[in-house]
Amino acid sequence: MAFAGALMQSGYMMPLIGLTLLVAGVLLVSNRFVPLALAIFAPFILNSVAFHVFLERSGLPMAGVFLALELYLAWAYRDAFRPMLVARTTAR
Length: 92
Description:
The protein has helices at residues 2-10, 13-29, 34-54, 60-76, 78-81. The chain is mostly helical.
């Protein structure tokens, strides 16, 4: 819990995280820029899973649900992510 306390004491991190997640959530719900919203959510979900695996196990089931939903949607939109996974590309 010291980690969450440190984020709150920074004064800007929790509002920034909240606003970022709110924007990504609105994008998902409105079905606009879904691949971008999933890319924004991915680091938060990964950090949440890691936090609950290593530090606080009580929230692990919910983190697992969000991870499963993220993976499902990423798979459903996999064609949109294909260009990001090209090893070498040229600028236009």
